[in-house]
Design a protein that fits this description.
By secondary structure, this protein is α+β, with helices and mostly antiparallel strands. It has three domains: 126 residues, 2-Layer Sandwich (Nucleotidyltransferase, domain 5); 99 residues, ATPase, nucleotide binding domain (Nucleotidyltransferase, domain 5, 2-Layer Sandwich); 70 residues, ATPase, substrate binding domain, subdomain 4 (Actin, Chain A, domain 4), CATH 3.90.640.10. It is built from 13 helices and 18 strands. A five-stranded mixed β-sheet has the order 3-2-1-9-10, sandwiched between helices. Helix 3 packs across helix 4, helix 5 crosses helix 12 and helix 6 packs across helix 7. The longest helix is centred in the first third of the chain and has 16 residues. It is flat and about 70 Å long. 47% of the residues are buried.
């Protein structure tokens, strides 16, 4: 009874404070962090990178400015990606990054702590959830709601998740690929694999190292993926000049590569995502699986923009596959929509974790 009263008064206080603060929805991604401000929309979309001084641990830069330093910093400064595979790998750096983004998202309300909805991978542990909550609270959030990324993505792309029908979402982010079948506001079955955009970048780097003895960095690998990467044969194959360091001679070198080669480099990563989609469908109850024949599968996240990955999954599953508009922002838009929901609906959607909202 006492716990219920405490929860009620916390909710009442938070409701009143909500009129004076700009509550936030955050997609705390491995590659990119996006922030949605209630009543304003998406105000921040920057890389999840922090540059710090080694000796003093002083933060030098965050976001886009810090990403430009990756692989180019002097010995005294190190550029860190504090998120790995969708979870926090460096608590203090993540806290500093969140503090920066929260302050930047509401510059005129620094004295009023915001309520925050954060999207998390569906497969993370209770300890990893606790790390997210603690980081957000220490960074300035007055209360924290966690919502699984596939739910947030489904809400963000406009799927009717509250209806009694099957909706399947595949969200390919930087660190994880989230797959889920959702009905009546809940996840019927979910699968989270730590294979996504970062794994694709690594696969390209490894391919060039083994095939051409060429060493490239993360930024170059990502550029290759975006410019000529594909998961399905293209009508017209593409080529690209790539610059890196020759591992034998130790000197700068330029080579020409094709989209056929990069498709080969990405084959194992793409197959892992396809296999996860098949596994999700195999675990879907028959009645909901029948709904998917008409509704199909919706894809979101930056990884869904890889050329032909929708065709590949459609071919392997036999279901129609649609890539959502603005798929990069689906998750953060879902957290933003959650901010506007009634309290009861929020509770039905949020992840199991300690909640102050």
């Amino acid at each position: 009874m006492i716990q219920k009263l405490i929860r009620f008064f916390r909710g009442l206080v938070d409701y009143v404070l909500g009129f004076f603060s700009s509550d936030l929805g955050i997609d705390l991604g491995t590659a990119t962090t996006l922030v949605y401000v209630k009543g304003e929309g998406i105000v921040i979309a920057e890389p999840s990178v922090v540059a710090i001084e080694k000796e003093t641990n002083r933060v030098v830069a965050v976001g886009q400015e810090a990403k430009m330093m990756l692989g180019r910093t002097p010995g005294a400064i190190v550029a860190i990606r504090p998120m790995k595979d969708g979870v926090i790998s460096d608590f203090e750096v993540t806290e500093a990054m969140l503090k920066y983004f929260i302050k930047k998202a509401q510059p005129r309300k620094f004295f009023m702590r915001p309520a925050v909805v954060i999207a998390i991978p569906s497969g993370i542990t209770e300890v990893e959830k606790r790390a997210v909550i603690d980081s957000a609270e220490h960074a300035g959030a007055r209360s924290v709601i966690l919502i699984e990324e596939p739910k947030a993505a489904a809400i963000g792309v406009g799927l009717p998740v509250q209806e009694p029908g099957g909706n399947m979402i595949i969200d390919i982010g930087g660190g994880t690929t989230e797959l889920a079948v959702i009905s009546l506001g809940g996840i019927v079955y979910a699968k989270s694999i730590r294979v996504a955009g970062d794994e694709m970048d690594t696969a390209i780097m490894e391919y060039l190292r083994k095939t051409y003895n060429l060493m490239i960095g993360e930024r170059t690998s990502e550029e290759i993926k975006m410019r000529i990467g594909s998961a399905y044969p293209l009508e017209e194959e593409l080529t690209m000049d790539v610059r890196g360091r020759d591992l034998i001679a130790g000197l700068p070198k330029t080579i020409a590569i094709t989209s056929v080669e990069i498709r080969e480099a990405l084959a194992d990563t793409v197959q892992a995502i396809v296999d996860a989609a098949k596994s999700t469908l195999e675990h879907t109850p028959p009645e909901l699986a029948a709904d998917l024949i008409d509704r199909g599968i919706v894809m979101a996240g930056g990884g869904s923009l890889l050329r032909g990955i929708d065709k590949r999954i459609a071919e392997e599953t036999g279901l129609p596959v649609i890539v959502a508009e603005d798929s990069n922002t689906a998750v953060v838009r879902g957290t933003g929509e959650t901010l506007n929901m009634p309290a009861l609906m929020k509770r039905r959607l949020m992840a199991r974790a300690r909640l102050d909202f």
